[in-house]
């Protein structure tokens, strides 16, 4: 979520009033804002996407809740020591959190372990361990519409009789200390992005958020006029018409068997009725196609932790496979491929398969990604139910990612096309009229220059390096991962360095290359990549032959509040994943909206950005998905490229020989060995095209006016990438709710009794 103060002032229309009031108190609002800690309760794009979605849902007047875990320790703070990443605990609650309100009156029990007892009256899950889920509510204000939604985060608490009612009876002190075991569930965020780590504590976290949330939803449903009771039981027929639950990746997949357990075991609904309601309630968003990221939980672990849920999953699978066998008799291989259970050394549950079978809609997050989901990753399921599969291209909130972080540009746009674009970003197309307006061109360039000077001062303060603010700010910020190919950027830096040294008199367009992002603590290769970038920076930044022509900076502790500083100052946005690996990306959209040009592959939302702005207004290079597939078919041989491209050979040889690590010449052996022998993401295959494309970038940068005109064309084409548009599509195609443009009267004005009623009851 990042910081909340400035976003709240903007959405409430109070920023200028607050700035003025604080100034009159002799304080500086910007200094105050810098004191707030980021809420870093997710890893990367997926968590930030949820935050943008919450802003858009409130702005569109949807009755929507965001549910998650209130981690005591969020994503680690990254320190760079001697070029290496070192992790520190993110004690973000140290000084308290003024935005949250604990709601002990809504505390709920969550059960673990135990066993299942079957009887005539049905299944009973008994002898469980109980953990309490304590909700904390954070307000989510819509933009200037007096709507305030809720983000509810659950914190784990031990019940007061924890360990005192059974085995630790004699040792009171130890029993109280053991309360930590229960409360550890919400202690810390697992720091992996695009990687599955099958740990018991992680499964506990996933079930914890799911069980608490579903109880909360059902409590709210029963309290509404829809959950009408006929003396004996609640009628759940209208449940899917009143409730829509969107699964953000497979992490909350246990919600499907949990809702079935509630309906069948507790509410005593017949299975078929319960399953129909469940399917119509859930929809699933897939966020990655990398096989190592797909959740596959060992059956043994689920059996121990959630024995009743395993039985329900088996029953879902049995009925699912019976259905497929009836459609495709004797096709045992299809049954194996489509089963929720994977056989092997250890039996595992494929959570993506569970989500597909248990949802009425499945979507990818960019056109190209949704196609890959349909035709490759889940092709058997899409063949069975093609109408279930959709696309919903990601977006970003223009409130945080333009108004808040780039007020100069936001104001300049408002002067030309009015202020309405903030709620309807498609209006940015009106800027096409000003693409040849010399004054506007100069003003856009001036805002960018001011942002660069401000960021250069920040860098000089934090990193003690002299930055040339007229150099091209070439920025690559995102989680460190092999598929995102920070290594390819690194090879380009080394190539530029070698060209400057080879011919110091030759014209060189000065660059400041900024790379930032966190590596998962257990991801050895990602940590080596950070060390390599810092080692190259050490050499480049201290070579007098290079001077101010080339500077390399690794941005420490990249997070939302730092993104808000660097993105508005960026000239060139690096989006260079191997085609077919980045589901969408959202940083790409933030840079586009903030007046940077994109160098990128035809991957994720880059494809649609090129479609909107015209491919000639992005720097597109490298293999397309088809080329990657073809290269896989032929077999990728890295050595071929090394032998054919002298500049690539020189750069790789320098890394290999210890040119960048003279004290330990073998330091980067693992990296070089990977690049030659098991590079799944084919860095060498795109190197030549990338370097050539970068030459075109430098050439255009020399022509400031032509560059800025291309920037304006990009901003004018960025409207599609508002999360408001994305959420309208979810609302229309999946949740079946109508967004409302109505501005609720403020609390100090009386309102009609009739206006109290929500036009549509469904809550997402």
Automatic annotation (TrEMBL):
Keywords of the record: Allosteric enzyme, Carbohydrate metabolism, Glycogen metabolism, Glycosyltransferase, Phosphoprotein, Pyridoxal phosphate, Transferase
Ranges where the record places region Disordered: 740-764
Residue positions, PTM N6-(pyridoxal phosphate)lysine: 590
An annotated GO cellular component: cytoplasm
Enzyme nomenclature, EC number: 2.4.1.1
GO molecular function: glycogen phosphorylase activity; pyridoxal phosphate binding
Keyword Repeat included in the entry's annotation: no
Record's catalysed reaction(s): [(1->4)-alpha-D-glucosyl](n) + phosphate = [(1->4)-alpha-D-glucosyl](n-1) + alpha-D-glucose 1-phosphate
Required cofactor(s): pyridoxal 5'-phosphate
Record InterPro entries: Glycg_phsphrylas, Glyco_trans_35, Pyridoxal_P_attach_site
GO biological process: glycogen catabolic process
Function: Allosteric enzyme that catalyzes the rate-limiting step in glycogen catabolism, the phosphorolytic cleavage of glycogen to produce glucose-1-phosphate, and plays a central role in maintaining cellular and organismal glucose homeostasis.
Subunit structure: Homodimer; enzymatically active. Interacts with PPP1R3B; recruits the phosphatase PP1 which dephosphorylates and inactivates PYGL/glycogen phosphorylase.
NCBIfam families the UniProt entry points to: P_ylase
Protein name, as recorded: Alpha-1,4 glucan phosphorylase
Species the sequence originates in: Certhia familiaris
């Amino acid at each position: 979520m990042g910081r909340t103060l400035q976003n709240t002032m903007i959405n409430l229309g109070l920023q200028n009033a607050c700035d003025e009031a604080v100034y009159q108190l002799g304080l500086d609002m910007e200094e105050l804002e810098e004191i707030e800690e980021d809420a870093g309760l997710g890893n990367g794009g997926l968590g930030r996407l949820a935050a943008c979605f919450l802003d858009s849902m409130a702005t569109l007047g949807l009755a929507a809740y965001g549910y998650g875990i209130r981690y005591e320790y969020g994503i680690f703070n990254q320190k760079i020591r001697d070029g290496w990443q070192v992790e520190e605990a993110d004690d973000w609650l140290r000084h308290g959190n003024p935005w949250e309100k604990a709601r002990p009156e809504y505390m709920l029990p969550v059960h673990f372990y135990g066993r299942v007892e079957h009887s005539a009256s049905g299944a009973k899950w008994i002898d469980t361990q109980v953990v309490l889920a304590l909700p904390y509510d954070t307000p989510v204000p819509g933009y200037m519409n007096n709507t305030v939604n809720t983000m509810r985060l659950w914190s784990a608490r031990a019940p007061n009789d924890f360990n005192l009612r059974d085995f630790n009876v004699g040792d009171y002190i130890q029993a109280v200390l053991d309360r930590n075991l229960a409360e550890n569930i919400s202690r810390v965020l697992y720091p992996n992005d695009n990687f599955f780590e099958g740990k018991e504590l992680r499964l506990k976290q996933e079930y914890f958020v799911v069980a608490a949330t579903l109880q909360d939803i059902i409590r709210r449903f029963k309290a509404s006029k829809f959950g009408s009771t006929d003396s004996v039981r609640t009628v759940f027929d209208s449940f899917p018409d009143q409730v829509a639950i969107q699964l953000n990746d497979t992490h909350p997949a246990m919600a499907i068997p949990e809702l079935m357990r509630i309906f069948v075991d507790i509410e005593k609904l017949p299975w078929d009725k319960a399953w129909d309601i469940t399917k119509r309630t859930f929809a699933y968003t897939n966020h990655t196609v990398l096989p190592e990221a797909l959740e596959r939980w060992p059956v043994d672990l689920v059996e121990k932790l959630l024995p009743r849920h395993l039985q329900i999953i088996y029953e879902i699978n049995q009925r699912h496979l019976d259905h497929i066998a009836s459609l495709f008799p004797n096709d045992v291989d299809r049954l194996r491929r489509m089963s929720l259970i994977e056989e092997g050394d250890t039996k595992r549950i494929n959570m993506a398969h569970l989500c597909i079978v248990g949802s009425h809609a499945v979507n990818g997050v960019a056109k190209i990604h949704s196609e890959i989901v349909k035709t490759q990753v889940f092709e058997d399921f899409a063949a069975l139910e093609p109408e279930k599969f959709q696309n919903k291209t990601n977006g970003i909130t223009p409130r945080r990612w333009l108004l808040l972080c780039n007020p100069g540009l936001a104001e300049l746009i408002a002067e030309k096309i009015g202020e309405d674009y903030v709620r309807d970003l498609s209006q940015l197309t009106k800027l096409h009229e000003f693409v040849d307006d010399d004054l506007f061109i100069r003003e856009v360039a001036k805002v960018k220059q001011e942002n660069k000077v401000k960021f250069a001062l920040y860098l000089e303060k934090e990193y003690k390096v002299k930055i040339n603010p007229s150099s091209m700010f070439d920025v690559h910020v995102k989680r460190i991962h092999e598929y995102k190919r920070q290594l390819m950027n690194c090879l380009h830096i080394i190539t530029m360095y070698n060209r400057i040294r080879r011919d110091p008199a030759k014209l060189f367009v000065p660059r400041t290359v900024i790379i930032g992002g966190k590596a998962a603590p257990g991801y050895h290769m990602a940590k080596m990549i950070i060390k390599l970038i810092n080692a190259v920076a050490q050499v480049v930044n201290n070579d007098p032959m290079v001077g101010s022509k080339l500077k390399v900076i690794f941005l420490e502790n990249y997070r939302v509040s730092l993104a808000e500083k660097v993105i508005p100052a960026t000239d060139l946005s690096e989006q260079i994943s191997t085609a077919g690996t980045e589901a969408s990306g959202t940083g790409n959209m933030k840079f586009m909206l903030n007046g940077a040009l994109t160098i990128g592959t035809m991957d994720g939302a880059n494809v649609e950005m090129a479609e909107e702005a015209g491919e000639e207004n992005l720097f597109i290079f490298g293999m397309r998905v088809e080329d990657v597939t073809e290269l896989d078919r032929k077999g990728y041989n890295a050595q071929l490229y090394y032998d054919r491209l002298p500049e690539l050979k020189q750069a790789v040889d320098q890394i290999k020989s210890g040119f960048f690590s003279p004290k330990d010449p073998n330091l980067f052996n693992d990296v070089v060995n990977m690049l030659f022998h098991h590079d799944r993401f084919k860095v060498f295959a795109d190197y030549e095209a990338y370097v050539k494309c970068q030459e075109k970038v430098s050439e255009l940068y020399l022509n400031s006016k032509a560059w800025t005109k291309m920037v304006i064309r990009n901003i004018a084409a960025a409207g599609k990438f508002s999360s408001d548009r994305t959420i309208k599509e979810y609302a229309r195609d999946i949740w079946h709710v109508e967004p409302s443009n109505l501005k609720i009267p403020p609390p100090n004005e009386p309102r009609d009794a009739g206006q109290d009623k929500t036009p549509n009851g469904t809550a997402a």
